[in-house]
Amino acid sequence: MPRNHTVAQPDHLARIAEKYHFFDYTIIWDDGANADLKSNRDNPNILNPGDVVVIPDKTPKTETRPTSRTYTFKVKPQPLQIRLQILDYDGEPAVCEFKFKIEADSGTVNLTDGKFRKPIQRAWENGSIRVDKLNILDVPMKVGWLDPVEFQSGQVARLNNLGYNAGVVEKPDPLQFRSALEEFQCDNGLDITGVCDADTQAKLKAIHLC
């Protein structure tokens, strides 16, 4: 029987698929029972706490082969990749040495275009980054904690990630949030209203890349 999964941080669809032993998260996402959720969330890995994901029944897959030989079947799970873009103080892609730690994986890479990409395990959620050149020291990185931009928590998180001090994600100070929002609107040629309207949300998503 299908079951309901209520989203809680740090859930994202790849993590949910891992929990219910689905190698391909699109089997869940494309199920008709999730059509309404899919129409409201354009990114399956950015869900909001309280969203309900219907976990469908598994359907066995069959393959027909002659019995005269031995066959090996391999299941290749979809990889989950973390992507970051590091900008310098002028807003340009940073060329720098970048140190990371994500759960049991860590290392140092040289960024030539300011972009960091790395496959990670679908169940991982904690990490940190460090860029000595930019004085970015041991910044916590939480996988799966970004809420949709339609919600204030998602707006605060994106502003913080872009270098605007919008406050604590869970409970931001209204004046601090408004100040950060006005600064973002000023920097990006938007009407300075201090309100995160549809145009501001769209610009936040475009610059934040999700």
Q: Main sheet?
A: 4 strands, antiparallel
Count up the helices: 6
The structure class reads: alpha+beta
Order of helices and strands: EHHHEEEEEEEHHH
Supply Rg. Answer: 20 Å
Helix amount = 10-25%
Strand order, biggest sheet? 5-4-7-8
Q: Which residue ranges are poorly predicted, with pLDDT under 50 across at least 5 consecutive positions?
A: none
Total strands: the figure is 8
Shape verdict: globular
What does this structure look like?
The structure is a single chain. The protein is an alpha+beta fold. Helices cover 25% and strands 22% of the residues. The chain contains six helices and eight strands, in the order βαααβββββββααα. It has helices at 13-19, 26-29, 35-40, 152-161, 174-187, 198-208; strands at 3-6, 52-55, 80-85, 96-102, 105-111, 115-120, 126-131, 136-142. Helix 4 (152-161) packs across helix 6 (198-208). The chain is globular. The mean pLDDT is 92.
